Amino acid sequence: MKELGKVTHWYDKAGVAVVKLSSSLKVGDSIKLKKGDQELEDSVASMQVDHKEVTSGKKGEEVAIKLSQKAKEGTTLYSAD
Length: 81
Known about the structure:
This protein is mostly beta strands. Helices cover about 0% and strands about 55% of the residues. The strands form two sheets. The protein has an eight-stranded antiparallel β-sheet, with no helix packed on it. A two-stranded antiparallel sheet has the order 3-8. The relative contact order is 0.38.
């Protein structure tokens, strides 16, 4: 599993996680979210940078991604491949 980034903020009502990327990420990618004993799989449904829709994010960027499940701050994202 390759580390993709860490969740820096979670917006509960919108179901959106802000992620500081340590590797590139694209809409449609399958990801694993892991924090402590909690682990879940999801896919990137949509992504925004500065409130603008984008199809990918690159290393060093902070992106907002829509998730189907809650991801607390400090959660690590990995590629599910």
